[in-house]
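agent> fetching stored inputs for the pyridoxal-5'-phosphate docking request
agent> found them:
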Amino acid sequence: MIQDWNNRFSDNIKEYGGYSIGKLFALLSDPEIISLAGGLPSPDMFLKHELRLVSGRVLEENIESVMQYTAIKGEQALLDAIVRFLDRDNIQVTDENIVVTSSGQHGLDLTGRLFLNPGDIVLLDRPTFAGAIVAFQMQRPEFAGIDIQEDGSDIEGFREKIDIFGAEGRKPKFIYVVPDFHNPSGLTMSLEKRNSLIDLSRKYGIPILEDSPYRDFRYRGDTIPSIYSLDQEDGGGNVIGLYTFSKLFCPGLRVGFNIGPTDVIEAMTNIKEGNILNSPKYNQDMCAAFLTEMGMEEHIRKCRKYYGDKLNVFLTTMEEYFPDELGVTWTKPEGGLFLWVTVPEEIDTHKLFYEAIKHKVAFVPGDVFFGENPARNTMRINFSFASKDQLVTAVKRLAECIRSQLSL
Ligand SMILES: Cc1ncc(COP(=O)(O)O)c(C=O)c1O
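agent> prediction call returned; pasting tokens
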């Protein structure tokens, strides 16, 4: 019997730690724990009736094609609907610029596989989306993180890093950003910075990876054009866009799409052929129907109101239970599903997590959102899943728990 399986794994996998927060989530089975940890959309916002109707019809009319293999690149009806979906956001693409993915995580995986060799540099924010870190980590790159600012990524910081690497004869492979309601911080990149980032990309020839799961979830303030659309106004070709239906529609169907220059999309489609072949036809049919016949714009309006109300409740309760003396600060997002809390440096939120569970509340310790050199006194809070009453209780429990750890 083979005993030393680990030694037989590929070099990429031997060094791969996987998603460390999965192990923490396994501790949250107690129903009394109010979890602010996951990134789950609320089932209250699921279009259950609409999905049942369309699903019944599709199975009735097209069951054979639903049960069959389908095009690698994506179902034509979905590609057509995506073209119109993006057009409403000032992005003009054709089928050649789109590959359907089996969700945002798959889109990140395709991008990592396409661009990264071991040791290649990825420029990103500190903190950044943990799922992107694990997806890219599979290729063993080097992460170069720059602290995010109130108005989004630190573009000057990126420039300085590029120059430092340039002096060593190295160049980052791409810059990964989540400009709208960033996961995990909730912060949004200003228009000025989006333009500066494009200038940077053009000057140094470094592609931008724009990940946009939350773009339609704006609760206050004005929409800022996507980096993809700004680049396109000036000729385009520097940005790859990552989208998922997970937050806007539902995560269970696992459908998303990547957009970009034709060479990039063709190469991603080739990788997809070798990794999942095609995304499930049924799931793509449901997403096409979401875009075309489930009242998407009305749904988005309802989500904005529903999640925006929850965010307000959360922020108001934080003001009440976290007086200045506690030394706790938090971001005030204009949209999305998350905010970012920084506690006094004496607290390690990974340890605090276990204390918090005893207080029946959970969050994600901030260290998992750093490619390197984590800030251990931080945490990500999700406000979309718990009810408003639960959010209030959760803030009270969190305040109690943090107080118990401070030497005030
Ligand atoms: C920034 C970002 N990108 C990608 C994803 C992955 O999305 P999906 O659940 O569709 O795989 C998420 C999910 O939370 C996310 O926040």
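agent> quick read of the result: The longest helix spans residues 296-321.
agent> awaiting further instructions
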